[in-house]
Amino acid sequence: MKRRDFDHLNCSLAQTLSVIGEHWTLLIIRDAFMGLRRFDDFQKDLGIARNVLSERLKRLVNEEVLEKTPGEKGFPEYHLTAKGLALQPILISMTHWGDKHRPNPKGRRLIFLDRKNRKPIQTMTVRAHDDRRLKPKDITVKRGPGHRSSGLDIPLSDLR
User: Fold this and answer.
1) Helix, strand, or coil here: 32?
2) What is the pTM of this model?
3) How would DSSP label each residue in 110-142?
4) Backbone phi, then psi, for 50, in 5-degree steps?
5) CA separation for the pair 33, 97 (Å, rounded)
6) What is the C-alpha to C-alpha distance for residues 39 and 53, in angstroms, rounded to an integer?
7) Which domains are delineated in the chain?
8) What is the C-alpha to C-alpha distance for residues 160 and 147, in angstroms, rounded to an integer?
9) pLDDT digit string (tens) for 61-96?
10) What count of other Cβ atoms lies within 10 Å of the Cβ of residue 36?
């Protein structure tokens, strides 16, 4: 299946999907967060075709989400860059969504812990500038200066 290009859309979400929207890509990034570094380790864990993995890794390196470095015994390694590390809240949010809406009957598949005290982190939420938890109905959107036009407020609850 040919990857859909969203470069023509003036939308931050569309631009993000252009880089990480393909499911294998997100799973590769997940594995990189889990400490996998080598091509064969990604391939073994995911069961992904080698040509597909190669293509996805090249794209992530080109997009500066991963950095390819020389590894032990001459095998290259892939490391998350600052751009890649910035995806952590997205992956955690998606995992929390899956725990709630596509649960495993035996319980959570992954539990994210605070490294300092080894306690589970809170479920990802959207917070206001004063740290209040916001629900979807509490949020509205306004076109910014990078949009084709500006000044229109659209309540997200009206976008259903």
Assistant:
1) helix
2) 0.84
3) ---B-TTT-PBPPPP-EE-TTS-EE-GGG-EEE
4) -60, -40
5) 18
6) 8
7) 12-85 (1.10.10.10), 89-159 (no CATH)
8) 21
9) 999 999 999 988 889 999 999 999 999 999 999 999
10) 19
